[in-house]
């Protein structure tokens, strides 16, 4: 089983990386789905502003989580 370093102090197996990549893809898909839902809600007259705010908040949470996971997979190392 191959192992490689990810991040500063953590070590990740190839299987763990595959699982993380699959999770990352699910988060990206949810982020794209929220884009569509937000646009549809904005285009609707009299749309539910509370629901729109919730969607936008969730989208920001996803963006942060996606960035965190991407950093775990491929850290930005300044040499």
Automatic annotation (TrEMBL):
Protein name (record): DUF465 domain-containing protein
Key words of the record: Coiled coil
Coiled-coil region: 14-44
Organism: Ancylobacter aquaticus
UniProt cross-references to Pfam families, sorted A to Z: DUF465
Classification via InterPro entries: DUF465 (IPR007420), DUF465_sf (IPR038444)
UniProt key word Coiled coil: yes
